[in-house]
Each structure stands twice: as structure tokens, then as C-alpha cells.
Specification:
The complex is a heterotrimer. By secondary structure, chain A is α+β, with helices and mostly antiparallel strands. Chain A has 17 helices and 22 strands. In chain A, strands 1, 8, 9, 10, 11 and 12 form a six-stranded mixed beta sheet that branches. Chain A has a six-stranded mixed beta sheet with strand order 14-18-13-17-15-16, sandwiched between helices. A four-stranded antiparallel beta sheet of chain A has the order 4-5-7-6. In chain A, strand 4 and strand 5 form a beta hairpin. In chain A, helix 15 packs parallel to helix 17. The longest helix of chain A has 18 residues. Chain B is an all-alpha fold. Chain C is mainly alpha-helical. Chain C has eleven helices and no strands. The chains are: A alpha+beta, B mainly alpha, C mainly alpha. At the B-C interface, helix 1, helix 6, helix 7, helix 8 and helix 10 of B face helix 5, helix 6, helix 9, helix 10 and helix 11 of C.
């Protein structure tokens, strides 16, 4: 399951992603851009009070070692301190959080060394200082079958001995060494170090006390999440034994101050203004949006639907902020006929009406029409052509180009420019109107389509399982795990990620040139070189038309009048440890 | 009587076993769900998948899994763990139960308060305008889809979105123990919406039963003796006409306690119905299993209680 | 309510009044002719049938675009749908599709699913009910227990589960139940046949003791012949009445499944699905919620009125 899930997990459809005017001041939104909330921290924010969060979606997992959704990270980053993290307004450069300095990567790219701060303490009942061994255990447990973290395999799977841990042979990860309380040395069998170092912003690097968590992790399914201890400014309300009674699945999360947290004394940059966070889950998005806008002390916990964007953007501008994140695309299965033919794929890419797709998500405010895959703000975006793209003819017209499409079909051997052939299968989600637009577009080319509108979960299962032989997935999308081209492109487009189940590469694109180029780009340390290399990878992927880039989201977020909301731009969500009441 | 009760209890157990077995089979074959893959994260190695399958007991034949599940249910009242949240299914169902009970109880009060007088008056004023109006309205209420009625009610009367902001809208549920006033306020609209078609149905039923009873001989006798019509109806007719309603009431309560999916969805009441609906959406097998079993339990027990009550009243039933 | 129908938290069989075997045919027709309300409802249903069958023509004559045509021009800058206008009589939905045209086409799905599923339920229910009532003994025990098991399920949950399980790949039962309409029909038929079977069984139990059956048996007629010649014709009246009562329930059932997202697949228009799509924007796009809901309400109401009329006309106890 990808981080994509996080964003699209809106139950009642009409996921609308409003425009990131504020963040990326590109000209096209200029006229409307005035007056929206900036989402930046301001001087003299008020301390105290309770912030109320309301979301439709539940967290994917309350366990910081499993958490992977955008929604979840709001709680995770308020309660846990990973080695590195992004300040709310800055997506470019992570700052040392639990770590005391930037990671050191060896010249061969196979060793990463990290120093851990003193003075950081776990919340009760553990209540002791954090050491590098706690970080080692946190990363190690990610490989336990009882924990099964979603991403450690991708970024840390090349740690020496990681395989043995995930097969349950040992509970000691040989590639992680702790020469002293402050030092963690990571040894990889491949030169993945530069990429792995960037992935240390993910919450799997937040410390976990082994002596306390061992018993929970030894169960068939770890329930450490329901008994977790915190290192961040807040913790899930818990009883004396440490049971996290403040989290009721599908209902609520209560965050209270972590008594062991000592703020700047332990090098934490989070101001943590509010005393409490009361988060309700399962709210109807439209009703919740209204309640936030008309109510007091509230912020939206997940995506705000179109009617609310319209309401706020026209009448309550100061209560809505936009934050760009991730991309969306339509995947065409390159392993299945007729999409094994690049010309047929390009015909589909050419006919898709991206204007209509934009409108279906809420119009220009909620995002920009994509011309390639790396979204604005991710290094390599400009190298891949910026907003305009590199001018591939099948992506030239946002409203679709029937002539170009017919041309590619003729090239593919269909003399009259219309497709003729066996029925293809296409999967969309109930929550997304865009699927039905894609369906209409594809039918225009003459395709006979077996269309299935599924729940988000069923759609993911169908698209990520090659044996289910889905030709077109109308609802692809990706959020970056960190601010880097690798985190955007490797999962969905490297041939190395194809697997029989839960394969993130829905297109099943396996192009040796692209694979090699990605591997080379992953090893680069110099930021400029790295950006250029990933920009080139992006264009190579775009040129295959294995997927049709449709949209770069600008996520709309709403707040009550009396809330000074601060946006965590790396996550395109409110930052609970920076937002305050007015 | 003891023998009869024992036989019935045995049958209840058999029914629940059958329901759980069928549910297990249906959802076991649900093609969208490989719980191991969902847990494993992206591009899992086959070894990891195998390890997780073994941990979750998914590598065993379906009848072994079923056996283990039922053993847990019977011996420890353990319904397993949700695949979606990893939390115990039993705890989540019990957490949702108060909301569902609140919704059901309030709706029952509302619909009886509406149905009894309306049914009675309709029968007394048969074929007059009161009767026609009431029965016409009842038929409309029966014909309206409940979720649509809910949306219309929200559109008209909810405080946050309504044209006439009078009642608390969706998303406002508060537990009774937190704040009784807020609890009642938040449930007022759901109660009425859920009660509408039931009230209509019960009113029609009461009217029909009353009319039926009124044509019985002993009523004619009473009339012939010159007892006033009002006393005839209230004194002699009402009791036998209401008895079948009590039966149906028992069964309806049983069904509703299993969760009112539609009303809970529209008004976002965190009850068992919503829990079940979310579970199906997420292909969360243990949760589906738990909620279906729970729902069936209430239905079957309601049936049992109604039958026992009948047997108590009428000994002939026991030998049937 | 639960005695006679699958509870959808609402809606349902308007009356559980005893269905009595047929009276004189003329009396029946005279009574039906005098029931003006039922006749109006019947006329409405006839119109609805014609509209459903001739949907393309109706839409064309009304000058509306076809139901699946998307139009970005009918949306505002935020992608919100626009309301009733000259171009779109009842407004458009979130993809700029014409609501009038979708409501008209929605009638097709509603009627098709309700009639097909009810038809199947009647056939299966009658056959099984007759077998159980006629042969009694172990046949009756087995069949009745089977009905009990089905009736013990929370029916909407079962329907939801089955429908989502069958919505993928090759569907259920080795491909017999394909994803799409056939899944919905299957689920609804499965849920409603036991109610039929119960009614039929009860009727047969009493019929088989009657003199004409005894007589037939005395002259050596075979069981099958007795069932076909003596029993079946006498079941016609109750079956017809019960059918008219269960059709509206099944219409609501289909709409509920579509509302919960497991019914008919888009872009095919279905009333329940349209209400579901309207639910999140009902406060800004009232037309999208109101018109499909009204269509549903009127259709169900009409069926209920006709059912009521038939029942009254067939019931000799009702004084004209």
C-alpha cells in the first residue's frame, strides 16, 4: 500500500484538492490567489487551549512503526521524534530532530552514521532517556513480520542482515550497530546510503524502547501501537500502565501533553502551543467542513470536499489554505495487450481530458494540470520541464486531442484511427468522479471497457496485483515519502518494484534503461546532480506513456476563524504542534 | 416448558453456528482481500508473506480457521482482531453498542408514541378524513427510502446546513454518559427519521387488527348490550389488537440492535451499522464476521424471546 | 415488519392483514374498479413502464442530452453542478450529466431489478414453500430450517457483503452471478425468497387438509398432480398480493444497495446511486438529491397503493 492511499482515502467521494496558490506562486492562479490563509507560523501565537480535529478517515495504524498515511502522520509527528524531520514551512531540507546533526554518508554510499541527541526522554511509564539503541530497535522491528512496516523494505531493505529479520530468523539486525549511546551506524550491502539517509525522516526512525515493546512485538500482531510511548510534545492519552486509551479506532484520538517532553532543552523546535488535541474520526466530509468553517477551535484532518472549497474560497478566504503534494496519474498496464504497444498507450494519453479531471476535483484552485510526474517543489521538477513539460505531443493539449490520438492508433495499425479489439478492464473508485471521465474518454477511441467502480481498498488490491489483469487504473497517485525524486518515481515505475502482490508499479513498466538510470540516480549525493538525474528519469518515464500524468494536487485545508493554523507542507496537512488558537 | 426452552435454546445455538459458518465462507472467498498482503506493505517478499500468513493462521484450511475462530468465540468471547486497525473486534463492537442502543431505543419510543394513537384514531374514524389522511401519510412514510428522508431532514432542519436550523445535524453524536442533553439533541432527527416508516407500519397494522377484532362476535355482543363505542374499542378491542404488535416489536428491536446501517451512515452515528459497513468496504474479515454474528445474535434472541413469551401464554405452542 | 419482509430500517409491506383465498372474480374486479386511488397508482405505473422502455425516446423528445453525456460547461469554476435551467430541466450532476435524463433511465434499473428479483423469489419461494407444506415431515423440517437460517441474517449486511464479493473478477458461484445487475438481482432474490416460501408453506399446510384435496387423493391422483391441479391455483391470489407487496420492498432494497455503493455500476444511472452521489453535496445541489428521491418515493408508493387495492379487492372481509 502506498502513501497515495493516504490522500485518496476519502469515503464519500468528490475528493477535491484545492490549489496551491500560496506555495508555488505560478502565474496562472494569480488572479484568485489573494487572501487565502498562508499557513505560516506567526509571531506571538497563543499558548493553551484545545484544538479540535475532524477527519473522515481513520489512521492506517496508530503504531509509529507502521504509520504511513498522510492523515496518520499528523498524529505521529506530534507524538514522536524521528531522527530528522521537516519544519512546517520548509520541504527542501530536513532538520535534525532526534538526531543532533545531519547524517554522514560514507564515500562508497554503503555506510550512514547518525548521532542521537542526549536529553530526549520517553513518556511514562518508560520515562527514561533515549539512546541510539532505541532507534536501532525501532528500525529493526519494522522488519518483524508482527510489525511489517510498509516502507522499510524499500529504503532499508539493503541493510546487512535485514532479510534474516524479516524471515523471523533473528531479532538482531546485523547492519545496525551502536558503538555507544549516541551513535548509530548503518551498513548497507549496496550504495543506497544517500537515499536511505533521506528516508530517515520517516517515523520508523522514531525510537522505541526495546525492554518495554518486546512483549508487544512478540505477539502475532504487535499491539505496541495501543501501548506506545511518546518522545514528541504530545502523547496519546494513556492510563498508568501505558495503554493508549485515547485512541478508539474509527472514533477518536485524544492527544495530551507528554510530561517527559522538555521542549527546546532537548533540541525540539516544535512550540506545541495547544494543551490538548481532540480528534474525531468518521465525520461526513461536507458536514465536517461546514462545522470547521462556522465553528470554533477546529481544523480539518483530511481532504476537504469541493463544496467546502467553494464556500471557503469565495466567502471565508482567511480560513482556507492550500498546500501542494504529490501527483495523480492513470496507469496503462504495459504487460497486457493492447497496452504493450506504446502507440496505443500514447493514443489513450492524448485523448484524456485533463481539464475535465481538474474540474472534477474542484477546479483550478485544487491543483495544476500535470505534464510529467515529478510535482512542483520536488527537486528535478524544473529539469523535467517545469509546468510546461517537455512538449510530448500526446500531452500537449490539456483538454485532449482526438486527432493526435487517432494518429497514434493509425501508427499502431488501426487504419481508421479507432481501436478494435478485445474488451479491456478498467478500475476506478467510488469516491472519485474522475474515473468516469477517463472511462468516457477511453470509450471515445473505440475501446470496449469493462468498468468496475470499487471501494478504495478493493481498487488498490486489484491494481497492485498483476494477476488480476487490470488494463487501466484510473486512480493512480503518489505522495513523496521525502522530498526527493527517488521517493516519487522509484516505487511506481522501477521494474524492480514489480511483485506478485502489493506491487506499487501498476503499469508493470520494466524498462532496463530506466531501471539503470534510477539506480544510478539513487547513488548521487550532490543535490543539483541528483535533481537533474531524477528530472531525466521523469522524462524517460513520461515518454513511455506507461501512465498518463493528469494532475498535481494542491490540498485544501480549512480552519475555524479562531485558529492560527500552520501547514506542514511536506505532508500537506495541518501541523498539530505548530497550530494554535487565536 | 423446560423441555421446550431447552429445544429452542439448542436451535438458537445451531442457527448462530450456521450463520457464522456461512459468513465465514462468503467473506473468506472475497476476492479483494488478502489480509497478509495488506499487512505486508509494498512489494513484500514471498518469505514475509508466508511468515505473516502463518502468524495470522491464514495458511491453514478454511475449516481449521473456522474451528479456531469459533473456539475463541465460545471459550473466551474473543472475536479476533480487526485487519484494519489491529484492535480487538469485541472491544470495538462494545464501544459502538451504546450508540446503536440509543438510536434504537429512542426510535422505538417515537414510533410507538406516533403509531398507537394514529392507529387507534384511524380505526375509530374509519373512512373519514382523519383516517384517510393518516393512512395516506403512513403509506408515503413507508414508501420513502430512509436515507433519503434523512438527507431531506438534514437539508431542511439541521443546525449547520439546514434551511430552518432547528435540530442538531450529522456528526454531532455524544454519548449519554458525557452529556445527556447533547445526547438527546443529537439523536432527535435520527430517531424521527428511523421511526417514520416503523410508525407508519405499526399504525396501519394496529388499524387493520382493530378492524378485524371489531368484527368478532364478542364485540358485537358488547355493542348489542349497548356499551358505548369508545368503551367497546378501548375495553375489549384494543388488547387483542395490540398483542401481535408486541411480537413484531420484539423482532424489529432485534434487527435494529444489529445496527441501522443506513441511518447511522446518513447521520454519522457511530453505531454497529457503520462499523459493519466500514468493515465491508475495507474487506476487514474479522470485523465483518463479528458484526454479522452480533446482528444475527440479536435477531435470533429476539425471535426466541417472542416465541417463549407465546409459549408462556399459550401452552399449546410448546408441543408444536 | 420483520415477519413479512427484509427490514431495510424502513419501507416495506404496508399491511400484514391475512390474505384470504380467492373470492368471486367479479367481486374482485368491481372492488378494484371502485378503488380510485389504486387505479391512479396503476396508471402511474403503466406510464412509468412506458417511460422506462422508451427512455431514449422520452429523453430525446424532452430535448435532454443522453444520460451518460458529460459536460464541463454545466459546471461552475469549482466543478460544482448547476441547477435546473432551460438546457437541463432538473439540473446536472457533478460530471455535468443531465439529471432528468438520468432519472428517466434510472427507472429502467429500478424496475428491471425489482421485477427480475421478485420473479425469481416467487418461483423459488413457491416451489420450496409448496414442497415444505405439502410433504411435511423431514422435507419440511430441512426446508424450514434453511429459511430460518437465512432469516437470521442481518439482511442488508448479507446483501452488502455478497454484492461486494461478487463485484470483482468473474463474480460468484463460478461465474453464474456476474458483476453488475445480475449480482444485485441475485442478492435481492436470495434475501426475499424465504418470506415467500413461508407464506406459501402456511397456505399449503391448510389447503392440503381441505376436502377437494382429500377427494383428489382418494381417486388416486399423484402428489405432483395434486399440487399442480388442486393446490397451485388456490395459491394464485395470495401469491399475487404478496408479490405486489414485495416489489416495492425490493425496489427499496436495490436503491439501498446502490446507495451504499455495491449496486448497479456507474455510469449506468440508478436512483439509489444518484442519491448517494448527491449526499455529500445535498446542501448546495438540492436538485440532485430531490429528484431521484422523489422518483423512488413515487414509484414505491404507487406499487404499495396498487398492492393495497389488490389486497382489499381480494379480501372478502372488507366491506365495499
Amino acid at each position: 500500500m502506498n502513501r497515495m492511499l493516504a490522500r485518496t482515502l476519502v469515503v464519500l467521494g468528490f475528493a477535491v484538492f484545492a490549489g496551491a496558490i500560496a506555495a508555488c506562486g505560478d502565474g496562472e492562479d494569480g488572479a484568485d490567489s489573494g487572501g487565502f490563509a498562508s499557513g505560516e507560523p506567526v509571531e506571538g501565537q497563543k499558548k493553551g487551549g484545545t484544538l479540535k480535529v475532524t477527519s473522515n478517515a481513520d489512521v492506517d495504524s496508530i503504531d509509529p512503526g507502521q504509520a504511513y498515511f498522510q492523515v496518520t502522520y499528523q498524529a505521529t509527528y506530534a507524538t514522536q521524534r524521528p531522527l530528522y524531520s521537516y519544519r512546517p514551512g520548509n520541504t527542501d531540507e530536513p532538520v535534525p530532530d532526534l538526531a543532533s546533526a545531519h547524517p554522514v554518508v560514507s564515500p562508497d554510499g554503503k555506510t550512514v552514521t547518525v548521532k542521537v541527541r542526549p536529553n530526549v526522554r520517553f513518556s511514562p511509564p518508560v520515562d527514561r532517556a533515549v539512546t541510539s539503541r532505541d532507534v536501532k530497535y525501532a528500525l529493526t522491528r519494522g522488519f518483524f513480520p508482527s510489525v511489517a512496516n510498509q516502507y522499510v523494505g524499500t529504503y532499508f531493505g539493503d541493510l546487512e542482515g535485514a532479510q534474516a529479520v524479516s524471515e523471523g530468523k533473528t531479532r538482531d539486525l546485523a547492519g545496525l550497530q551502536t558503538p555507544d549511546d549516541r551513535t548509530l551506524v548503518m551498513r548497507f550491502s549496496t550504495p543506497i546510503g544517500p537515499t536511505a539517509a533521506r528516508a530517515l525522516v520517516l517515523p520508523a526512525s522514531a525510537p522505541v524502547p526495546e525492554e518495554y515493546a518486546r512483549a508487544f512485538d512478540a505477539k502475532k500482531k504487535s499491539d505496541y501501537g495501543f501501548n506506545q510511548v511518546a518522545t514528541g510534545p504530545y502523547m496519546i492519552r494513556s492510563d498508568a500502565k501505558g495503554k493508549a486509551v485515547g485512541y478508539v479506532p474509527g472514533r477518536k484520538i485524544e492527544l495530551v501533553r507528554n510530561p517527559s517532553w522538555n521542549g527546546s532543552a532537548s533540541g525540539d523546535y516544535r512550540p506545541a502551543y495547544v494543551d490538548r488535541v481532540d480528534w474525531t474520526i468518521g465525520a461526513n466530509p461536507t458536514v465536517a467542513g461546514r462545522q470547521v468553517i462556522n465553528g470554533s477551535g477546529m481544523v480539518s484532518g483530511d481532504t476537504v470536499p469541493a463544496p467546502i472549497v467553494k464556500l471557503a474560497a469565495t466567502r471565508h478566504k482567511a480560513q482556507i489554505a492550500f498546500s501542494p503534494l504529490g501527483n495523480r496519474y492513470i496507469t496503462l498496464n504495459t504487460a497486457l495487450a493492447p497496452f504493450d504497444d506504446p502507440d496505443v498507450r500514447k493514443a489513450v494519453a492524448a485523448v484524456v481530458d485533463r481539464n475535465a479531471l481538474q474540474l472534477a476535483r474542484g477546479g483550478r484552485l485544487t491543483g495544476k494540470i500535470a505534464t510529467h510526474f515529478l510535482p512542483p517543489g520536488i527537486p528535478g521538477f524544473e529539469d523535467a520541464g517545469g509546468l510546461e513539460g517537455k512538449g510530448h505531443d500526446f500531452l500537449a493539449k490539456p483538454a485532449g486531442d482526438a486527432e493526435v490520438a487517432a494518429g497514434y492508433l493509425r501508427k499502431a495499425g488501426f487504419a481508421d484511427g479507432r481501436f478494435k479489439g478485445a474488451r479491456i478492464s478498467m478500475v476506478g473508485t467510488r469516491d472519485d468522479r474522475g474515473s468516469q471521465i477517463v472511462l468516457e474518454n477511453v470509450r471515445k477511441l473505440g475501446f470496449d471497457v469493462n468498468f468496475r467502480n470499487l471501494s478504495q481498498e478493493a481498487m488498490l488490491a486489484a491494481c497492485a496485483t498483476p494477476s488480476s489483469k487490470v488494463h487501466v487504473c484510473a486512480n493512480g497517485g503518489w505522495l513523496p515519502d521525502f522530498n526527493d525524486g527517488y521517493a516519487m518515481l522509484f516505487g511506481p515505475f522501477s521494474g524492480k518494484t514489480i511483485s506478485p502482490e502489493q506491487s506499487p508499479n501498476w503499469s508493470q513498466l520494466d524498462d532496463p534503461r530506466i531501471n539503470a538510470k534510477m539506480d544510478a540516480a539513487a547513488r548521487l549525493t550532490n543535490p543539483a546532480q541528483r535533481a537533474k538525474a531524477w528530472g531525466e528519469v521523469d522524462d524517460m518515464v513520461t515518454a513511455t506513456a506507461a501512465a498518463v500524468p493528469t494532475y498535481w494536487d494542491d490540498v485544501p485545508l480549512v480552519q475555524s476563524k479562531d485558529v492560527q493554523g500552520v501547514v506542514a507542507r511536506w505532508n500537506a496537512a495541518w501541523d498539530l504542534s505548530f497550530s494554535s488558537l487565536k | 416448558m423446560a423441555g421446550y426452552v431447552a429445544r429452542r435454546l439448542l436451535w438458537v445455538v445451531a442457527l448462530l453456528l450456521a450463520v457464522s459458518a456461512i459468513t465465514f465462507l462468503i467473506f473468506y472467498t472475497l476476492p479483494s482481500a488478502d489480509p497478509a498482503a495488506i499487512r505486508a506493505g509494498r512489494q513484500p517478499t514471498p518469505e514475509l508473506l508466508a511468515q505473516i500468513r502463518q502468524n495470522l493462521g491464514l495458511d491453514e484450511p478454511v475449516y481449521v480457521q473456522y474451528w479456531r475462530y469459533m473456539k475463541g468465540v465460545v471459550l473466551h468471547f474473543d472475536l479476533g482482531f480487526s485487519y484494519a486497525s489491529d484492535a480487538p473486534v469485541r472491544d470495538q463492537i462494545l464501544d459502538r453498542l451504546p450508540a446503536t442502543i440509543s438510536l434504537t431505543a429512542g426510535a422505538v419510543v417515537v414510533w410507538l408514541a406516533l403509531a398507537l394513537p394514529v392507529g387507534l384514531i384511524s380505526a375509530l374514524r374509519r373512512r373519514r378524513w382523519q383516517d384517510r389522511l393518516a393512512m395516506g401519510a403512513a403509506l408515503v412514510a413507508i414508501s420513502a427510502p430512509v436515507y433519503w428522508l434523512g438527507l431531506v431532514a438534514l437539508y431542511l432542519f439541521s443546525k449547520d446546513l439546514g434551511r430552518f436550523p432547528i435540530f442538531e445535524g450529522a456528526n454531532t453524536y455524544r454519548p449519554l454518559t458525557d452529556d445527556p442533553a447533547a445526547w438527546a439533541a443529537s439523536l432527535l432527527m435520527p430517531w424521527f427519521v428511523l421511526a417514520a416508516s416503523f410508525a407508519a407500519f405499526y399504525a396501519r397494522l394496529l388499524r387493520a387488527n382493530l378492524l378485524e377484532v371489531m368484527s368478532e362476535d364478542y364485540i358485537r355482543t358488547a355493542r348489542a348490550k349497548g356499551v358505548p363505542e369508545r368503551r367497546v374499542v378501548l375495553g375489549h378491542g384494543l388488547r387483542p389488537a395490540i398483542t401481535p404488535l408486541v411480537t413484531i416489536l420484539g423482532l424489529d428491536i432485534g434487527i435494529l440492535l444489529g445496527g441501522a446501517i443506513l441511518v447511522e451512515s446518513v447521520f454519522n452515528v457511530p453505531g454497529i451499522g457503520r462499523l459493519a459497513y466500514d468493515a465491508i468496504r475495507q474487506a476487514d474479515l474479522p470485523m465483518i464476521q463479528g458484526t454479522v454474528l452480533f446482528g444475527a445474535f440479536f435477531i435470533v434472541v429476539a425471535n426466541l424471546l417472542v416465541d417463549l413469551a407465546y409459549a408462556w401464554v399459550d401452552p399449546r405452542v410448546r408441543t408444536a | 415488519m420483520s415477519l413479512t419482509e427484509p427490514s431495510l430500517e424502513a419501507g416495506g409491506v404496508p399491511s400484514s392483514g391475512e390474505v384470504v383465498a380467492r373470492s368471486a372474480r367479479q367481486l374482485f374486479w368491481r372492488r378494484l374498479r371502485d378503488d380510485r386511488v389504486a387505479l391512479v397508482a396503476l396508471a402511474f405505473l403503466c406510464v412509468l413502464f412506458v417511460v422506462a422502455v422508451a427512455a431514449p425516446l422520452v429523453v430525446d423528445v424532452a430535448g435532454a442530452p443522453p444520460p451518460e453525456r458529460q459536460s464541463t460547461e454545466a459546471l461552475d469554476d469549482f466543478g460544482s453542478p448547476t441547477g435546473p435551467s432551460a438546457a437541463h430541466l432538473l439540473g446536472v450532476d457533478e460530471l455535468g450529466r443531465d439529471v432528468f435524463s438520468r432519472v428517466v433511465y434510472g427507472a429502467r434499473v429500478s424496475l428491471e431489478v425489482a421485477l427480475l428479483s421478485t420473479g425469481i423469489a416467487v418461483l423459488v419461494g413457491t416451489a420450496i414453500g409448496m414442497a415444505a407444506g405439502f410433504y411435511r415431515g423431514w422435507v419440511d423440517t430441512v426446508l424450514s430450517r434453511l429459511m430460518d437460517v437465512l432469516l437470521a441474517f442481518p439482511i442488508l449486511l448479507l446483501g452488502l457483503g455478497l454484492a461486494s464479493a461478487c463485484a470483482l473478477g468473474d463474480g460468484c458461484l463460478g461465474g453464474i452471478v456476474r458483476p453488475g445487475i445480475s449480482t444485485v438481482v441475485f442478492v435481492i432474490a436470495l434475501a426475499s425468497w424465504p418470506y415467500f416460501a413461508r407464506v406459501v408453506r402456511g397456505q399449503v399446510l391448510s389447503l392440503r387438509e381441505r376436502e377437494f384435496v382429500e377427494a383428489s387423493r382418494a381417486i388416486g391422483a399423484s402428489n405432483l398432480r395434486i399440487m399442480r391441479v388442486e393446490v397451485l391455483p388456490n395459491l394464485a391470489a395470495p401469491i399475487i398480493v404478496y408479490t405486489t407487496l414485495i416489489i416495492p420492498t425490493n425496489i427499496l432494497f436495490e436503491a439501498a444497495l446502490s446507495f451504499l455503493g455495491v449496486g448497479v455500476q456507474p455510469p449506468t444511472a440508478s436512483w439509489g446511486q444518484m442519491i448517494a452521489e448527491a449526499a455529500p453535496i445535498f446542501d448546495t445541489a438540492w436538485w440532485y438529491m430531490v429528484f431521484p428521491g422523489l422518483a423512488l418515493l413515487l414509484t414505491v408508493l404507487a406499487f404499495n397503493l396498487v398492492g393495497d387495492g389488490l389486497q382489499d379487492a381480494l379480501n372478502p372481509k372488507t366491506d365495499p
